[in-house]
Each structure stands twice: as structure tokens, then as C-alpha cells.
Design brief:
500 residues, mainly alpha, 24 helices, 76% helix, 0% strand
């Protein structure tokens, strides 16, 4: 093979990922069949899990769908699982897939209303502490009834919008002038300090909002993808799921909001930056100009979105249909009554959800390997051999640690499936099964705020357009999430011990 062809293949394989990472994935693919024939399926299965978790942890270098997908395909080829087993796993989780496909896309068509709400807060509320609390509360409430990814997308859109407005003016231009806000070369010298303060202001707001999505996301079966999966296995509807989680999630919510308040008052861990008066004046002028331009048709569209939002909340609370079908209904209503009839307009709504939906199917392929090879059986047996009173706390801690370094959907999928098998075999009672399911849900949702790897919404924020604009790095996110992680996790574990 010609050298140029080899070079092209090397560059094309996993795109712009670091060369060492490409070499590592190739090494994994090369040694796995050898390990299977020398060490056996159990050890190779565990090595495969760690390889897959590494692809999740390296999500910033390369989206996990490609490297993780290659590992999953190889696992099928070498016989560690089968296409039928993967299909069975996917079929059992169809409701979760429909949630991601249709609910996230449905909320996309409510973005104008959500943007209006957050924008009003940003320009109307002068107290930074109050604004931070409102961002966190609104993000929590919206995530409980919508989904964390979409709410995070709205926060990002608001942040990028207002940053670009000030950056344009700080560069000596008008609101309507074309401008590249990704570089500071044109920013006037006297406005640079205000720009840095504005970056710190937005950085703290984005983190408060992201944590808010986790606070609300843990509460209901639509807040996070794994919640619906757990509810599906346990047979809980929307209200029952909420009520069963409430003894743990409500104290965690209160502690999270108190943490938000304290961080803004103490200005520790990168929080507390105030909005400069000059920046506020520019944003208020911009908001007034945009409001004056808004046509009557656009105002009617906002009312339609508000009415459909009320329908969504009632439909979820009353469980009138499966969550994914409610999401499809939202898409139909919002597009039909707001004049969105072009195929390409509708297609944009699915761009956020489908990559993660595809990754979720890869999760299920790895989970089928775990099932086929009974990899988690010894761990589950050990956990279930503990005193009944210790088991929920053990599951909370184990799920929390794994979720912080990998992905909470993957971890929850594995653990809930294992305790379903234990319940079906008669090893645990229904009451104890319910307690462990609650521990798994709260364990995968609460401590996973520690890193961007654990929460899809955090990873989405880190890889979004706003992260480089406001100088939000991986290390910065971990540092800013640290007080939330510690206080929320301690509260969650304490309530698990006291209530389960």
C-alpha cells in the first residue's frame, strides 16, 4: 500500500483525535481477540468494559460513538455477545430511545419561549445571587418536566447570544453588524476588563444552571434518560417515580440551592462575579430593540408554546401515554400551529438527540456483553450478601463513583438490569428491589456532577460553542462543581441511609 494511502487512512481514522488515542484504540481492537483465547471471556469482558469506559472518559478527544462502537462491533464478531442479544437489549429499552428521539426534539420547538424566559431574567434581575438562584431553580424545574440536555442547550444559546452582543459593541460595532466573537483582537482596550468580568459572570451562571438541571433531572422519569429506564423496569409512572424519589431528591435540591447561595455570597470556587454596569446597559438596550422588532405572529407563537408546555406537564403527570409518544405529540402540535412545515426545519430538531441516541444503543451492546458473560454477577452477589440495611447505601456509593468517571446512563443500565434479575430469581423482595432502584437512580444522578463525563448535560456544555468563549475548561468545570458534588452527595447518601 502506498505511503500516501496509509497516511490518509491514519488521518481519517477517528478524525482529529490525538495520534496516541488512535493508536490505543487500534491496540484494543488488536489484543481483544487474543485475550479472549488466552485469558477467557470473563477477564476479557472486564477489560472490554474498562476500554469502553475509557472512551467515555475521553469524550472531549473523540465522541464515544466511534471508538466505543468499534469495540462493540468487535465484541459481537468475536462472540462475546450476539446481534440477537443486542437487539433484545435495544427492544427492552425502546421507551428510552423514543424519549431521546422525540421528547428532546419536541422541546427544541419550545426554545423561543425558554430563551425569552431566561433572557428576561438576565436583564431584569440586578442581584447576582438572586439571578443565580433563579437560573438554578428554573433549570431544575424545566429539567424535571422536559430534559436536562434541552435545558442546557437553551442556557448555552442565551449565553452565546448575550456574549456576542456585548463582544460586538466592545469591538466598536452596532448590534446588527457582522462580527466574529470568537477572537478578542478587535475589542477596545478600555472594554477588555469588562469583557473578562462578563466572562466570569456567564461562567458562573452556566455552572449554576447546569447543576440545576441535575437537581431537577433526578426527580422525575423524564429528567434523565436512565430515569425512564429505571421507571420502566420498576413499573412506576410519573407521579409514583417522583414520590418515591422525593425523600432523597428534595433535601438534595434544598442543599443544592443553599450551596448556590453560599457560593455567590462567598465568591469562592470561581463564583460571585457581578455583571458590569456598562455591560448591563448594553444588554438592556439590545433586549428593548429586539422586543420592539417582535412581530405579532412571533408573540402568538410564544403563547402556543406556553399552552403546549402546560399540556406537556399535564400529560406527563397523568401518564396519558408513553413519554416518547407524548414527545411526538409535542412535535406535531408545535410545528402545526407555528407554521413549521418544511422537512429541513423539522430535521434540525433531531440534531441534538440522535448522536446520543446512537451512543445509547452502543451502551446496550456493551450491556449485552455483561449479561451474556455474567460479569457483574459476583459484584451483585457480594452487594446482596451485605446486611439489608447496608445495601442501598452501598449501591448509592458504587453507582456514584462509577458515574463520576464514566457515564450515568451506562452505569444505571447495568445495575438496574442486574437487580431485576436478582428480583426475578427470588433473591430479593419487591420492597427491597424498589429501595435498590431508588439508590441506583439517585446514585447515578447526584454524585455524577463531579465531572463532565458523568452528566450528558455537563459534557454538552463543555463541548458547546460557549465553553471557549467564557474560558470554561474541563478542570474549571470540575473545580466549580466540587462544592456541589461534596454537599449534594453527602446529603443524598445520608437520606438514603435514613429513608431506605
Amino acid at each position: 500500500m502506498k505511503q500516501s494511502t496509509v497516511t490518509a487512512l491514519t488521518r481519517n481514522f477517528l478524525g482529529n483525535s490525538p495520534v496516541w488515542y488512535k493508536q490505543l484504540i487500534v491496540l484494543f481492537l488488536f489484543i481483544n481477540p487474543i485475550l479472549l483465547h488466552t485469558l477467557g471471556p470473563t477477564i476479557t469482558g472486564w477489560i472490554l468494559i474498562f476500554e469502553f469506559i475509557l472512551t467515555l472518559a475521553m469524550a472531549l478527544k473523540c465522541y464515544p460513538l466511534q471508538p466505543g462502537g468499534l469495540l462493540a462491533i468487535e465484541a459481537i464478531i468475536i462472540g462475546m455477545t450476539s446481534p440477537d442479544a443486542v437487539y433484545k437489549e435495544v427492544s427492552a429499552n425502546l421507551e428510552v430511545i423514543l424519549l431521546l428521539m422525540f421528547m428532546v426534539a419536541g422541546i427544541f420547538f419550545m426554545k423561543d419561549l425558554l430563551l425569552w424566559l431566561f433572557s428576561k431574567m438576565l436583564v431584569k434581575v440586578r442581584s447576582k445571587t438572586t439571578l443565580s438562584m433563579l437560573f438554578s431553580i428554573f433549570a431544575a424545574v424545566l429539567s424535571a418536566f422536559l430534559d436536562a440536555l434541552t435545558v442546557t442547550a437553551v442556557l448555552i444559546t442565551v449565553g452565546v447570544g448575550f456574549f456576542s452582543v456585548y463582544h460586538r459593541v466592545a469591538s466598536g460595532k452596532h448590534f446588527t453588524d457582522s462580527h466574529d466573537h470568537s477572537t478578542d483582537h478587535a475589542v477596545q482596550e478600555e472594554r477588555r476588563q469588562d469583557l473578562e468580568n462578563f466572562r466570569a459572570f456567564l461562567r458562573s451562571l452556566m455552572m449554576h444552571g447546569a447543576v440545576g438541571t441535575a437537581l431537577g433531572g433526578v426527580c422525575t422519569l423524564v429528567g434523565e434518560p436512565q430515569n425512564l429506564l429505571i421507571a420502566q423496569r420498576t413499573g412506576w409512572d410519573f407521579m409514583e417515580f417522583f414520590m418515591r424519589m422525593a425523600p432523597i431528591t428534595m433535601p438534595v435540591l434544598i442543599v443544592g440551592l443553599i450551596t448556590c447561595f453560599i457560593l455567590e455570597k462567598t465568591r469562592r470556587f470561581g463564583y460571585g462575579a457581578r455583571l458590569p454596569a456598562t455591560v448591563r446597559a448594553i444588554l438592556v438596550d439590545y433586549a428593548k430593540e429586539q422586543s420592539a422588532k417582535k412581530a405579532h405572529r412571533e408573540r402568538v407563537a410564544l403563547w402556543i408554546q406556553a399552552l403546549v408546555g402546560i399540556f406537556l406537564i399535564l400529560a406527563l403527570a397523568l401518564h396519558v401515554a408513553q413519554v416518547g409518544l407524548i414527545g411526538l405529540t409535542i412535535i406535531i402540535l408545535l410545528t402545526a400551529f407555528n407554521g413549521i412545515t418544511e422537512e429541513h426545519q423539522i430535521g434540525k430538531a433531531f440534531e441534538e438527540a440522535l448522536p446520543f441516541t446512537s451512543l445509547l444503543v452502543v451502551f446496550f451492546a456493551i450491556v449485552s456483553v455483561i449479561h451474556e458473560q455474567h460479569l457483574f454477577q459476583p459484584i451483585i452477589d457480594f452487594a446482596l450478601s451485605l446486611d439489608l440495611g447496608q445495601q442501598p447505601a452501598m449501591f448509592f456509593v458504587a453507582n456514584g463513583l462509577l458515574s463520576a468517571i464514566s457515564d450515568n446512563v451506562f452505569v444505571a443500565t447495568v445495575y438496574i438490569n442486574e437487580i431485576v434479575e436478582a428480583y426475578n430469581s427470588g433473591a430479593i423482595s419487591r420492597e427491597h428491589f424498589d429501595a435498590l432502584a431508588i439508590a441506583i437512580n439517585t446514585g447515578t444522578n447526584i454524585p455524577s456532577v463531579a465531572t463532565p463525563n458523568g452528566q450528558a448535560a455537563f459534557l454538552f456544555l463543555l463541548t458547546s460553542a460557549i465553553a471557549p468563549l467564557i474560558r470554561l475548561s474541563y478542570g474549571q468545570m470540575v473545580w466549580m462543581a466540587l462544592p456541589y458534588t461534596i454537599l449534594m452527595s453527602i446529603t443524598g447518601l445520608t437520606m438514603v441511609i435514613l429513608t431506605l
